[in-house]
Structure formats: C-alpha cells, structure tokens
Amino acid sequence: MLHQVPPVCSAHATDLTKVYGHGETQVVALDSVSVEFRQAEFTAIMGPSGSGKSTLMHCMAGLDTVSRGSARIGDTELTNLGDKKLTRLRRDKIGFIFQAFNLLPTLTALENITLPMDIAGRRPDQKWLDMVVDTVGLSGRLKHRPNQLSGGQQQRVAVARALAGKPEIMFADEPTGNLDSRSGAEVLGFLRNSVRELGQTVVMVTHDPVAASYADRVVFLADGRIVDELHGPTADAVLDRMKRFDAKGRTS
Amino acid sequence: MLRTTLRNVLAHKARLLMTALAIMLGVTFVSGILVFSDTVGAAVKNASAKNLKDVAVSVQPSVPSGEAPSRSDEGKNITALDSNLADRIRSLPGVESVRSNVNGTATVVGKDNQPIGNDWHIAANYQPGRDGKDSRYPVKEGRGPAASDEIALEAKTAATGGHKIGGTVRFATDGPVITKKLVGIVGTEDPRVTAGGSLALFDTATAQELFLSPGQFDEFLVAAEPGSNDQALTSKVGEILPKDRAKATSGTQLAAEQSQMIAEDNKALSKTLLVFAGIAQFVSVFIIANTFTMLIAQRRREIALMRTLGASRRQVVRSVLAEAALLGLASSAVGFLLGLGIARGVLAVLGANGPGFPDGPLVISPTAVLSALTVGVLVTVLSAWLPSRKAAKIAPIEALNSADQTPAPSGLTVRNSIGTAITMLGVAIMLYVSTLRNESGVSTAMLGSAVTVTGMIILAPLLSRPLVTLAGKVTTHLFGVSGKLAKENALRNPRRTAATASALMVGLTLITAVTVAMTGSQQLMELRSTQDLTADYQITSSSSGGLSSKTARKAAQVPGVQSAVPVQSTGFAIGHDHATMKGIDPAALRHVTDLLLLAGSLNDVEAGSFAISDKTAKRFGWKMGDTVPVDFNTGSKERLKVSAVYKNNDIVSDAFTVPQVISDHTRGEDRANKILVKAQDGKAAGLSDKIRSHLDNNPLLKIQDHNELRKEAAGPITTILYLLYGLLGMSVAIAAIGVVNTLAMSVFERTREIGMLRAIGMERTGIKQMIRLESLVISLFGAMTGIGLGLFLSWTSGQMLHGAFPGYEMSIPWRSVGLFLLLSLAVGILAAAWPARRAAQLNTLQSIGDQ
C-alpha cells in the first residue's frame, strides 16, 4: 500500500446504508458505504447528481438518520444518538459550511462567527479566534452585517464560524457553488490552509473538479456506492475520472 | 387573473389561517350581537303580544294635567275606575267580558327571610270567572284565594321561597309585614314574572284594601266578542268614561307602544355592543394588513414575473384585493355561523341562570346576514389596500434577479414625521383637556384620545427600536443567545413588529383607561357614600311609599340606638335647574352628620325658611337672609327664607328644611326616604340585626352600615368594569391571534435560518425559546405602550371629573396595571406556543435547503 493509515480517524462509516421511501418508490441513496476520514486530511466527495454524495455527508454530520450500518465521529457512534445528543455533537465537534452561506442577517460578522459558542454558552478561545479571523482575512469587517459583505466575504465568515469552535471535523457542502471563481479559490485556499496549518479535518462535497483538486484525496460515489478514490488529485485527473463515469453512465 | 387569485388563496391556506380566524372572530362578534338582539327583541315582543292577546281595549285611570293624583286619608290612590263603571262597560254591545285589575307590589319573603324575585314584585287580584277559574292565572295546586287571610303565589315564586300550600307567607306591600295563608299555586305568562319577578295573588277585596280603596280598580281589560272592531269598541268605551279621569287604549295600540319601547331599548343595547365590535374590527385591520404585507413580500418574484408577462399595475392591485375579498367572504361566512352559535349560547346561559328571556327561535334577519358579511369583506379589503399598493410598485426586473434578496425597506422618515406631528397634536389636545375642570370637554377628550392613539400607531415602528432593544437586553441577559436572537428578529422588521404590537396596544390602552376611570369613580362613590355620615346605619325601603315616621320611632326604641332620624327628600327647580331639598329635624342633625355652618343658625331653620349649601348659594345667586321662590317638583310653590348657609354636605345635599315644609309640598305625606340611625357609644356593632328583628324582619327594609353602603355605591361600577373587560377582551384575543400570525409567518420566512441554527448546534428547546421570547418582546412592547398611553389619556381626561366630583383624585391602580402586564406576558407565551412548536419540529436538512 502506498498510503499509510494515520493513527487517528476523525470519522468513519461502516456499511452505511440510507434508504428513502418504501416499496415501489424505495430509493437506495447509500448502499453499504464504508469510508474513513482521517485527521488533518482534506477529503472531497464527488459524483454525479443523485450519486448520494450529499446524503453521505448529511449522515456523517448527524443531520440525517441512517437506515443501516454505522457512522462515527471520533469514538461516538451517531446512529443510536437522540436528537438532543446529536445537536450537542454538531455544536461541539462539527463545523458546517453551506452552499448558501447561511448566516444570520441580524448578526454582525463576528457575532455570526461566535454563534455556535454562544449557543453552547462557551467563551471563545480568543487567541484561536483572532488567528482564525486573521487567516480568513476578515479583521476589518467584523462589525459588518452579512448584507454589507460580498458573497466571498460571507462565505469566509461561514468558514471562520466553522473553524472557530475547533471542531473535530468540518463538513462543507458545495462551499463554492454560489461564488465567482476568484472568491471560490480564496475560500478553498482557506480550507486547505486550515488542514495544513491548523491541523483541521475537512470533508467537502462538490461537483467542481477544480474545487476537488484542492483536496488531499477525492472519493468518488456513483449510485450510492464508493466506486473510486484518488490521492493528491489534480483538476485534470478528477475531470478525467468524472468523464469516465459519465461515459459509463451513458453506456450502461 | 381571477384564477391566479383563487390559486393564491388556496395555496396559502395555512398562512391565511390566523388572518381568517381574526376576521372570523370579528364577524362572529358582530353577527352574534345582531342575531342576539333580533332574537331577544322578537321574543319579548311575542311575549307581550301574547300577554295582550285577548285585550281589545285597556282602560286606565288618568290624572287631569296640573292636578295631583287624589288620595284617601290613608294615603291610598283613588281612581275613577269602580265596579259601577265596569258594569257599564260590560253592558256595551260587542263587549264579551271585562277584567277589573288591581295592581300592586308585594315583596314576598322566603323561608330564609330573603325577598323573592328580582326587579318585579307583582301583586294582583285573582278573578274567578263563572267556572270558578281565572284564565289568566291557571291554578296548578290548591285553589285561588277567596278570603282576606288567603294568598296564592306563582309556582316559581313559591318554589324559590320554599312555600307549601297551607303554610303561612310573610310579605310587605309598603308598610309593615303582613302574614297570610297560602292556598294556591298558579301559573302565569306575564313576561315580568317569566323574566324572574315574583307574583302574589289576593282576592279582589283584599287587593283593593291593600293597594287601593274598596270598590276601586287600577285597570279594566276589555275582551271583545268575536268579529267586533277593536278600534270602534275603544271609542265607544271612551265615550262612557268620566272625562279626564280615565282613558281607553286599544289592545293593538298598546301592543304597538310596547314593541316600540322594546325595539328602542334593544337598539340602544346593540348600538353599545357594536361599538366594541367596531374596536375589535379595528384591531383586526392590523393583522390583515400585516398578513398581506408579508404575503406580498414572499411573492415578490412571482408578482414581478406577472408584470414581466404583461400584467398591469392595476391588475396586480386588483388581484390582491380580490384575494382579500375572497378571504373576507369565506371567513365572514364561517364567522356568521359561529355568531349564530354564540347568540344561541348566550341565550341558553341567560335562560339557565334565572332571569331568562322568553323562549323563541333564533331570528336571522337578512339585514344581520348582509351587514355581518359586508363588514367582514369590507374590513379585509380595506386592510389589504395599502399592501396592494406596495405590490403594484414591484418592478418587473425583480423577476430576473437570481438572488433571493428582500429589498431594503423604504425609510421611515416620512412616517415618523407624520406620526410625531399627529401624536404631538393629540398630546396637546389632551393637555388642554386636562386644564378643563368640568365635563364640557368630553368630546374634545375623545377626539384628543383618538388623535393620540392614531399618532402612536404611526409612530410605533420608531418606538419599537428603543423599547424592543430594552426588552431584548433583559431577555439576552436572562436567556443568552436565544434571547438575543429573539430581540434581533423582533427588530428586523419594525413595521411588522409595530403593527402586531399596535393591535395589542389599542386593546390595552382602552382597558387601562377604563380601569383608571372606573376605579377612580368607584373610590369616589365609596367616599361620597359615607364621607359626611356620622350615623352608624342607614335604613331604606324598597317600597315606593318610603318609610313612615312610625318606623323611625320604632327603630329609636331599639336598645343601643341613640337616635333614629328620618330624612325626607324632594326635588325643586329654579328655572330649568334642578336641585334636591331634604327634610330633617335640625336639632337631630348633629347625630347624623357634622355640618359646618357658614352663616346663620340651625335654630332659625323653621317653617317658611330653609338652609342652603354654599354651592347652592353660588349656583342660584342666593344670599343669607334672602327670601326666594321655590318650585317643588310636585307642582306646588312657596317663598322660603334662607336662614342658614353651610359648607356642602352629602347628607343634606343642596338644601334642607324642617320636615313640615316638605310634607306640605308632598301631599301631606309624612314619608321619609331614609332613616339614619346613630348608635350609643360602643353599641354600634351588631345593632343592625336587632333593628331588623325589631322591625319585624320586614323584607322591604334595607339596613346598611358604612361598609355595605360603600359596597352598594361601588357595586354597579364593578359590574360595568367587568362587562367592559369582557367586551374589550375580544379585541385582545384578536390581537393575540395577530401575534400568532406574525410569528408563524416569521417562522415560515426564516425556515432556512432555523435549519442552520439547528445544524450548528441549537437544540429544539433553544429554537422554541427564541420564538417564545420574540413573542414576549412584541407583546411587552404592545402592552407597555398601551398601558402607558391608557394612563396618560385617563390622567388628562380624569382632570375633567374634578368639576363633577370635587374629591376626585386620579390614582393609578397598580395592581390592575401589574395584572395587565402579566396578562400580556401570558398572551405572548400562549401566542408563541404553536409557532414555536412548528419551528422546533422543522426538519433540519429540508430547512437548510429551503429557498
């Protein structure tokens, strides 16, 4: 094996299955998926639409329930947690970045960043917070409200919010989907830096090969199964793989 | 366009639910009032028609103008209706029979020594026909009274009092207690009795002896032979009546007069109630307007698309208004049906609890249906008018904007300037009113209040910022981040928050103002009822005849009584200005009140002279020593000399003189309207029971100490206050629905935010708390402005009461104010229950994806 297994796993799924609906209308979104997300690694999940990549992320992040199998964050098994414990887990161990920024328009940038800690009733680690804010380059804009910020700046606020709580793992759902390419590159750069420099773990769902090329590893999904994996990807290599899926999809 | 409109209404069913409920409640209120009053009117009219069914002509005694009614030596009325006249009427062609009625009042005592029945204590003569029965009073048990020691009671009266055939019944007419043997229990259709009055029957001779003079009657009711003309019969009867001493009225006319009276009473009642229904409708305007503003904000893209596809501004406006009309119509229809239920329910409750109304089916007039529906639709369409103008201003280009951005709300500068100007005008008017010292300013005060409230409604968005921020500080401090988010959410759209809170504000302004005014006058009434009274007890009689001097003498004999002072009372007028004159023994006056003499001496108050208060002196321009002409209300006149002037005193009011003067001008009657009893030192406690039993436990007599007097004075005001609370409560209920509506809409609009909050770790309870606190903040904002405004308005207009009530002091009923604040907190929490639940149960994933 070329790749050595790092000592700690941030999250892993074992035989994860997710089924929607019953009987005739039953759809298997995830079909016995087993995957590991290692600490300090930037993983991209890719696949054609309907492949189950978002479902995989939602199940791993404790946002969606699992039909069969196991999903773990660190040592915690998610599948038998109640809503309250799941919520706590999301708050304390997971950071989120959404496609549509999802900031509260009534709060300032800084208030949005510290919101998860405010909810938890914890004081933010000021040094870490300063560093995070500095890293995403928002120092001058902390008092602004979301509608006074550009899309790129808003997404950087979202990245800072996800980072601020020193989560065990960060999930990003198409984080560049609503951004122009320059802002998108900036945000992806921050994500990669947070892995390389701050030792964070990031899992990102995307359909953009360029975005995926920022990752350390790309996991390909099709029809609810992991079909391939790529380490140290380049945009071209990812695109190449994607094309093969498309071709396969068309011929099958 | 209509199809789109219809689709819109159907598509937003859930979102329109609360608004529909608000409209429905308003219409329910209106239709309930209309149907209730129609039904009661019809039932009462029916009952009185039934009562007059067989009456072709009614003959009643009359008194020639300018002449006092003649009285016998014992003070009984003498009428021109005697058996002789009855016989002559009976012999007229076309007359079938003549009932000769003696009418009086008899207060019957139950076994528990309490008077039976409310309002009416009717007494009449039992008149058996040839068959030995009286068709008017069918005997249910026993037989009709036939001897002077016998009495019959109406069934309900007997049951209430616990009276059985063969037992003795105690009652009083206008004097001492009388005891007779109960021989019969009868039924009646007399509406006064079915409405809760009592009825006692005697044989004719006994009734005459009790209420009239032997051989005389109060009323002849003539029944006609079939086929004869009532009108013709009436004039024929009229011809044989003694001129000016009696008059004949046809049964039809009598019935018409009665129903006229009933209709007028009814109209006055429903008018008053409709004012409150109007207030409720006014409150629902805010909710409807709020809803349409929100709906249009949510539909901006859709409306812009319609505009791009070629819809004109007018079409957009019309489609919004049509949507409002449809909503109004549907809600009003349901509201009307609910109103029928309310009317039915109120009738049932009133019927079950004693007094009751004559039974009858619900009367649903086309007018009621039409007005209820019109009001509902009109209010809805008018409320949607401003939002529809906003919809028309949406530019077609907005359809092409990919981002889902809400436009920056237009500035409030214009609104704030107008609001400030109007509020200041209202405040200025009210401050001017506060300088007035008499009631002349009532209409000005109402105008000022309306202007101030309007101004405050316009200013509410401006006020919402500091007040909500203040409330938010508290919630943030207490509840952390959910309190802070609640505050921010409430501040997000000042217009919406303000409109929601304004609905609550209007209700609370009225409730507070009414409470302050009522508690003020209540305290005043209590104060006045006893402030000048140094006597310990007051005896009054419910009989119209008043109290005889014998009663006073008897009361004075009770051990422990120092003196029992009868006080007579009569009215007099100077020009068109009416005043009261008391008759009281000046020497006994010191026992019952501390009179402060300003001039003259009580010893000089004697026949031919009187004492006046300083207020009366000022009012009529009289001075000590003047001899002035006094017109008594009974029609007689006398010139009296002012022989003393005293500081205003509620016991002797405007003027007083020796009892003799009053008796001279009230047909020689020696009747007091109250007796004031002063106890010997230290003997006051428990004296009332001794006096009562010494006066034979007469049911006509009421013996009250200071406490009871104060309670009695304040009683009606308390009742009115509770009634007003009930009526204004409707507005508060609608305002609460408004809060639910706003919150539900907000939850809908902020679905994605809520999903995000859940995703990043806010628990369901946190979400619930956030919504609940937002509701609290809005409710508190409405309550605080409402209570503040209510206090201001009642303070300024309260100054006017100084004129009428010199002792009036505005006092803030802190307990009530505190209660109102608590109530609005409760409203806030209750209103949030459903929206908070919905928000907490939102599916996190779906919410995040919500566009």
Specify the biggest β-sheet of chain B. 8 strands, mixed
Quick one: how many beta strands of chain A? 10
Nearest-integer average pLDDT of chain B: 84
Please give the order of strands in the largest beta sheet of chain A: 6-7-8-3-9-10
Instruction: Tell me the domain tally of chain A.
Output: 1
Total strands of chain B: the figure is: 24
C-alpha-based Rg of chain B, rounded:
35 Å
- Find the structural class of chain B using helix and strand composition: alpha+beta
Spatial gap, N to C terminus of chain A = 31 Å
What oligomeric state do the depicted chains represent?
A: heterodimer
Profile the largest sheet of chain A.
6 strands, mixed
**CATH architecture title of chain A:** 3-Layer(aba) Sandwich
Which structural category do the helix and sheet elements of chain A fall into? alpha/beta
| Low-confidence blocks of residues of chain A | none
Strand content of chain B: 15-25%
Which shape of chain B, going by the Cα principal axes?
Answer: globular
Question: What do we call the CATH topology of chain A?
Answer: Rossmann fold
Task: Give the terminus-to-terminus CA distance of chain B.
Answer: 26 Å
Write down the Rg of chain A: 18 Å
In short:
The complex is a heterodimer of chains A (252) and B (851). Chain A has 252 residues and is an alpha/beta fold. Chain A has helices at residues 53-60, 83-93, 109-120, 126-136, 151-164, 181-196, 209-212, 235-251; strands at 9-20, 27-38, 42-46, 68-73, 76-77, 94-97, 169-173, 202-205, 217-222, 225-231.
